[in-house]
Amino acid sequence: MYTREGELSTNRETPTWIVSIGYGRKSLFVLLLSNEEDRIRDRIHLLTEKPTSLISDGDLDDIKARVSSIADEILTLEDVERVAGVLDARSVVDLLRRSPNGSASVELLSRLKAKPHFALEVFNWRRRQADAEIPLQAEEYSKAITLAGRTKDIDLAVGLFCDAARTLGFQSTCVYNSLISAYMYNGYTKKAISVFGDLERDPNCKPSIVTYNILLSVFGRSMLVNHMEAILKTIDQSDDLSPTLTTYNTVIAGYVTAWMWGRMESTFHRMETGTVKPDASTYLLMLRGYAHSGNIERMESTYELVKEMVNNHEICLIQAMICAYCKSSDPDRVRKIENLMKFIPDGEYRPWLNILLIRLYAQEGLLESMDKSILEAFKRNTIVTTTGTMRSIISSYFRCDAVDQLVGFIRNAEYAGWRLCRSLYHCKMVMYGQHNRLEEMHAVLDEMEAYKFNPTKKTFLIMFKAYWKIGRKSEAESILGIMWKHGFCTTEDSFVF
């Protein structure tokens, strides 16, 4: 009979003592059935000599250190077939025996998530040890299913899920959660929801807050906002569930994906006024939302809260902020963009970002910076496909009266396959006319014909004005005759000479 420590049992037939033996932060409660003090002392001494059922803090630290060392060695391997040899050589079986709850195995798999195929090979090796009286735990299967999802091997994930039921004799919520997550990660929304239905019908399990958080992510990624909000409402109305930080961050991420800025902010304010406060991940999500929505003021205030983290680790957010500045009317946007550009490594080239910078510099009349970005685009085989960007470029050359640079740009754009438009050639003709380079202006007609741009009324008007301006009336009149011939002039037209 169990009693409080140091108290004698009321059972008259067999006096019973509970003795507490301290061992680190744990206590071992030993039931001793004896009236003889000598036998009690001997048994206590024996147990304190070999506390094999306990793991002390020192042992835990040692296990973690060994797991870390083994993971580091496996991460250096290039051949997945060498994983088993490392595990055998490093006596990982001993680690498994020292952590019967599977924590050492789960920790090792977690540390190998950067190489999921290697982690799955570790799990395959681990399954073979189950025959050596080291049974597998549900948490190990859960981790392996998640890793299979990361490798996009859904068949393997499903196979591990079924194997877990056979091996364990039952299914657990954490294993269900992992399969739902694997389906979500690979875009199988309907299958993820189907597994959730199986979990709800399983009499031995019930959904946890982790389950609902995964569902929120499923619906958020698919922009099924109504479903996402229904799940959040279920959590709020439940007596057994409470929203966590992950819950709110997932909902905010869903609103960002759906570009629902008002609801994104209302969820954030709910966190600020509630018991679950925003963390760094929340602010990063809000920063992304403000950047995409073009809310420069709030983007900048949020950036100040997480500036160091963003500058050092969140290159994508830096790029999103630059994009927001490019589309804004902020008078100081060039300086702010150039400050942010310092945090983007040279190898992080993004074609769309370079095109945005070209258009920005064109709009601001920064010809040197624009030419530098254009040259970078040509070197990287980036192709501009929008006439808006092309017109911004030629307008910048026109404002700066850089006719030769415009000519060189058009020649390179033709060669690189950029989007050509009639405005390119009209601008070149106007600038040639302003510099009295009339022969070159006339030759542009041949260039237009080569790229299937037929001359229009505007084309001939540019030539007419250029000839008339410098007093070459005969050429101007011949151009006027060509316009009449092609039907570009009527009796209602009038030309002021």
Q: Which class of secondary structure composition applies to the elements? A: mainly alpha
Q: Could you tell me how far the N terminus lies from the C terminus, measured between alpha carbons in angstroms?
A: 118 Å
* Helix-strand sequence: EEHHHHHHHHHHHHHHHHHHHHHHHHHHH
Stretches where pLDDT falls below 50 for ≥5 residues?
A: 1-54
Name the helicity range: 55-70%
**What global shape is seen?**
elongated
Please count the beta strands (DSSP E, at least 2 residues each).
2
Query: How would a crystallographer describe the biggest sheet?
Result: 2 strands, antiparallel
Binned strand content: under 5%
Please count the helical segments. 27
Mean pLDDT: 85
Radius of gyration, in Å, reads 36 Å
Strand order of the largest sheet: 1-2
What would you note in describing this structure?
GO terms for molecular function: mRNA binding. A hairpin with a 2-residue loop joins strand 1 (17-23) and strand 2. The chain has a two-stranded antiparallel ribbon with strand order 1-2. Mean pLDDT is 85; it is low at 1-54. The chain has helices at residues 37-49, 57-75, 83-89, 92-98, 103-111, 116-128, 138-150, 154-168, 173-185, 189-201, 209-221, 225-237, 245-257, 261-273, 280-293, 296-305, 307-313, 315-327, 333-341, 351-364, 367-379, 387-399, 403-416, 422-434, 438-450, 457-469, 473-485; strands spanning 17-23, 26-32. Helix 7 (138-150) runs parallel beside helix 9, helix 18 packs antiparallel against helix 19 (333-341) and helix 18 packs parallel to helix 20. Helices cover 67% and strands 3% of the residues. It is mainly alpha-helical and 497 residues long.
